[in-house]
């Protein structure tokens, strides 16, 4: 089929079954005589697409009834502003944890709307760990507590949540949504850009507890008020129709495979294949602290810049592509989202073993 193993951090690999179904339905979607891209978002056929996407997401994430699901635009980055605009209403203050470049961006955006107290940071070690959440004192008054659940660049993830003392917890799950089972009721807001575990870029999923909706100041632009999108079922303006359609197919794909817990099992298997090898290798080393390692993004390095470059080049020639790490960490990063098959990770590790044998 000439498909490569694509380890891109995002936009990222999608399930081939989903791409094939979309290809089949591309020119004439279910007898409508048109593609989903050409369809009015107010049409019956499209209404069914967006409603089913929401329904399946609710099912696979077990989203409680007192949460709304929104399909928005502007990427996860717009949420960095929408969250403080909608939530910083009483204390005008947020407690935030700084675990990487995306947290930093969220922090600097939130500061435009109120006070931000950074309660913990792992910047001292290039964000290669998650600060100890159990020792955090989050008792001070604030409108919400903010974390980045999975840190795409550094390959770390939260495995325990901070005690927010009743304040809503906001979680950026852009790079780990649907990868492992989570309890939605522990959050006030969960948000995720689509282009890693959900579908194509262009849509951002926001899951928001009902009591947090409708408190934005009157000065907040209509498009940036969650209430606008809740009141209009994500159709206040034209939604990113095709991205939502593909997202719906991905949700169905997850459901068919056995849901999020089945994904989690496969993801653990994949991550273990790579981590076990990194732990035993004398040439490659992982960069994140063991206890905080991500299931989705695995950064690793070789002893020299020359070897890193050589590895990336040789890997690409064998069909393992987009393995270059983020410039702030260097080396390599394998993003192994839901759609990366076990076989892709196993073959990558086989290739790494060959590389190690040749270069040590
Ligand atoms: N948060 C995290 C954890 C991310 O990985 C990314 C994108 N890589 C973003 C936010 C920003 O997402 P977007 O490009 O959709 O604005």
UniProtKB/TrEMBL annotation:
Q: Which gene encodes it?
A: serC
Q: Which residues bind L-glutamate?
A: 42
Q: Does the keyword Transcription regulation apply?
A: no
A biological process term (GO) from this entry: L-serine biosynthetic process
Self-association state and partner proteins as the record states: Homodimer.
User: What is the protein named?
Assistant: Phosphoserine aminotransferase
Cofactor: record remark? Binds 1 pyridoxal phosphate per subunit.
Record-listed pyridoxal 5'-phosphate binding positions = 76-77, 102, 152, 172, 195, 237-238
GO CC annotations on file: cytoplasm
